[in-house]
Amino acid sequence: MKDVEKRYKGSMLSLTACGVIAFVAIAAGLLVFGATFLLILFPVAACVAAAYKIHSTGQQKRNELIEQANQLNQTTVEVLATAIDARDQIGTGHVRRTQIYALGLGRAMGLTGDRLDALRLGSLLHDIGKLAVPDHILSKPDQLTPAELEKAKTHCTIGASILEEIDFPYPVVPIVRYHHESWDGAGYPSGLKGNRIPLGARILAIADTYDALRSERPYRKPMSREEARQHIANAAGTRFDPEAVHIFLKNLTKFEVEIAAAGVDYPKEEITHQKTIEGKTYVERIQSANREVFALFELVREFGETDSLGAMLKLFAKKVSQLVPTDTCAVFLLNESREYASAAEVTGQNADVFLSKRIRPGEGATGFVLKNLEPVVNVNPDLDFSLSQLDLIQEYRTMASLPLVSDGGPVGALSIYTSAIDAYEDEHIRVLTTVANIAARAIEKLQAHARTRAHAMTDPMTGLPNARSLQMQFEREVARADRGNSTFQLIMLDLDGFKGVNDSFGHKVGDQMLREIGEVILSQLREYDFLARYGGDEFIAIVPEMTDGEVAELSKRIENAVREFRLEVKGSERYASVGVSVGAAAYPQKGESLDQLVVAADRAMYRRKSDRKNLELMRDTKAPEFDHLRSALAKLPVAAPGGLILELDESAVLIDSVN
């Protein structure tokens, strides 16, 4: 535009000079040649006039072309700037509104000519340096870490470096470099203070911040007009030039009228007119691509950080719902034998119905995916529901299901259902496939981790908790008892005659006996009681809130159940059986640590065993004292406070086990 003005001024001076020269020449010709000179002059003048008209028309066309080129350049810069801002999840209109605010404030503060042109272009390109900031930082919905914040701050210097490659006729680069400096010197990148910050940068800082506050960002909702005005006013003298703030707020209504006239008002009135591709504006497509990149980055990072399969599945389902339209998202996981899949995580509508579903490979749409390991897209949702679930059949319009396959094979399926759209697009399925592949590997890893952890806490012989798990359960029971001022009992159970089973039938039968007896004992306990294999042929149970009398009754039931159990020995008509000795100790009366209670229960049990053996010996030898001792034992209380011992005759068990 400035070149056009210079050319126009130059043309006017030339025309004026030519006019003066022509006037002098005509006057001289009339003096020398008289009226005859006019006959010569008129044709020449007509030719000159025609030539001038042609020149003038051509000049006007050139000026129009230059003006169109300038306008095209301006529009190109604006569109590219909008595309850059879209990576930061900023909607359309931000750069244009920022420019209107900046130019309006610049004029109000007396800027003209080159300084105003610099502000015009600088306000459009101030965030070009964000091209060097990773997408996951620009799109992060949470607070940035210190390292991420420092990376984001580099966009000022990088943007300035990019623009330094262009030979601008006015000072654009300083505006871009310093638009995040603060009036009090606390800004970046150089920590400039007060009037040392270029005026254009001070103006842009206010315009950019105000529009950012009024716009929605990934990490917050937009502020109202009054909230944004108050924020700017509060930052006068610290973040912003106080004089510029005063002028900006005084003229804000005027700027907003200009914004409305330009058709770039805030979301309530904002209507985009860009050409669309598949129903989306270019800004929406850029934002969608960056949301996808960020979601995938978050998935990989958070999947790697969690050691809980449940937490990972919740995150997985949540991310899927953010990326594609879903009313219900269900993650089905196969059991270890891969005979069926159960809903392990469900988000959205009808979660309770889905969580109760078991799907066998080949049954319905999801079952087809589990069997064939191929996705199904835009099929009838009725396929996954029975006639008894008619309401659900009518609720969804379409569904898609994708296999979850990792290096070790299939782990399950992801199924999504919606009533919001008639069909999922190829883009939806592409995104889902990428996410499903990431999730499948994470699921397999966490399942393996869970199995390893379970094995570390489980006795491999019986499948019961092991001694390590017992210690952890004991600590939980102690904490519960201390909080509620209550008690619990530790019961030691030692199998009698187990050595005879091993000696007579071999260790395979002995191992099977341990597993079966564990099940027998468990069947006599309550659902919330705890049973662990302590080692060898010993088991320990922890039973909360039981009196000594109740423990005596429980022990009697266990004794009878174990005594009545018979294990058939394959390839033989014989059977094996064992007995059990039981001792109990109460917390905290008999001890406050696991070791103390185990020792107390163990001593009581073996003391009772010893007494029983002595009595049996006396009975076998028909000692006269036997009837007297038996009468005395019959008068003993059922259980001593905090301890109880029961024993099945070991000699009889040994005989039973081989007969």
Characterise this structure:
With 659 residues, the protein is an alpha+beta fold. The chain has 4 domains: 68 residues; 185 residues, Hypothetical protein af1432, CATH 1.10.3210; 159 residues, 2-Layer Sandwich (Beta-Lactamase); 192 residues, Reverse transcriptase/Diguanylate cyclase domain (Alpha-Beta Plaits). Helix content is 58%, strand content 13%. The chain has 25 helices and 15 strands. The strands form 4 sheets. Strands 5-4-3-8-7-6 form a 6-stranded antiparallel sheet, with helices on both faces. Helix 14 runs antiparallel to helix 18 and helix 21 runs antiparallel to helix 22. It is elongated and about 175 Å long. The termini are far apart. The C terminus is likely disordered.
Topology:
Elements: H1 2-33, H2 36-86, H3 94-108, H4 113-125, H5 135-138, H6 146-153, H7 155-163, H8 173-177, H9 199-214, H10 225-234, H11 242-250, H12 252-261, E1 276-277, E2 280-281, H13 282-305, H14 309-323, E3 328-334, E4 341-348, H15 351-355, E5 358-359, H16 364-372, E6 376-379, H17 390-395, E7 398-406, E8 409-418, H18 426-456, H19 467-484, E9 488-496, H20 498-505, H21 507-524, E10 530-535, E11 538-544, H22 548-564, E12 567-568, E13 575-576, E14 579-587, H23 594-620, H24 625-634, E15 643-647, H25 650-658
Antiparallel strand pairs: 1-2, 3-4, 3-8, 4-5, 6-7, 7-8, 9-11, 9-14, 10-11, 12-13, 14-15
